[in-house]
Structure prediction request, 95 residues.
Amino acid sequence: MTKAIRLDQPTYYQVLGIEEDAEPDEATEAFQGIQEAYEVLSDPERRSFYDEELESLRNPHPLPSPPVCSAAQDPPFILASTCTSDTYSSFPAPA
Prediction:
């Protein structure tokens, strides 16, 4: 038995985000998406990981510029002698 339908609450179609003439497989797919979201968001550890991933997608860190080194020296010694210690300073600090 289903609970009484009330006009002041979203319909089940609205809850699933589907049209009223949607095929049953659309309801299944929408429900599976909601179920997956619930499983992640109800677990603090998984939610934290999800939030971090979402934040990094929304605000990607720009890639640092490649080091500027002089090519005037012999190839084996170029990087060792002409790149400064702050070459990688634009990388974010480890978390």
About this structure: The mean pLDDT is 82. The helical segments are 12-16, 24-41, 44-58, 78-82.
